[in-house]
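Sequence only, no structure available. Ideas?
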Amino acid sequence: MKRCFRSEIETEGNEMKYCSQCGKELVDEAVVCPNCGCAVQAPANQQEDKPSTGLNILAFLFPVIGLILFLTGVNVGFTPVGNLLGSGLAGSAYRWVLIPIGALIGYYIVKAEPAVQVLNKQVEDVTGGTVSQSMMNTALSIGVACAVMLSMVRVLTGISIYWILVPGYALALILARFVPSVFVGIAFDSGGVASGPMTSTFLLPLAMGACTALGGNVVTDAFGVVALVALAPPVAIQIMGVLYVHRSKAVAQNKADLLSDDGVIDLEDEEI
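Reply:
I predicted one. Tokens follow.
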């Protein structure tokens, strides 16, 4: 009969990384603690690669050329197509189909926002993968889908935007009290990038075309879709933060239960 101690098994050859502020366990790649938002000190021997002059020039030219092509595509394609699609759906006998189609468009259009993908990559790098790109993409897609769905409901029913914005931001502020501070900043920044050029050049014409076909007031019923899209990420990301806190507590409780068990493990010899 062999006897060995569990603490020796768990710590042998395994050096853990912890936050100096709150003491929470961190992954090796983390730059910021996802629990308290405290910056993690980088290794002293880590050096940043400086880009060359040629790369700097290319980095300046690519966004300029891309912006020119994007604005050309907006005037030629996005805006007319969005307007035509909205008026066609609203003018049909099944105008309620605007709601699920709007939700589907909202789910996928956020993935086409360049600023959203840049932010998601930065969040993943800063948190060391604790908040991954896939988590951010899923939360933002679901949030924007719900926002566009509510926008289509406004177009069909004509309800005031205040009935959505006021409770929505109240919920976002309440959630901010129950999530780590790093999620609060990420959530409200996500609201700014999600309501980017794709939203204003496709979703807004979609709502305007639908409202015009229904004979509604474009100013009061169609406008506001960008505001609802900006509202969705603060709520969705902070709900993800609440789930993260709940999951972290469950993992910590499981570790505590394992450590509270008998620290001696009996290993029986195998007979050959």
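Strands lie at 2-5, 17-18, 25-26, 264-267.
Hope that gets you unstuck.
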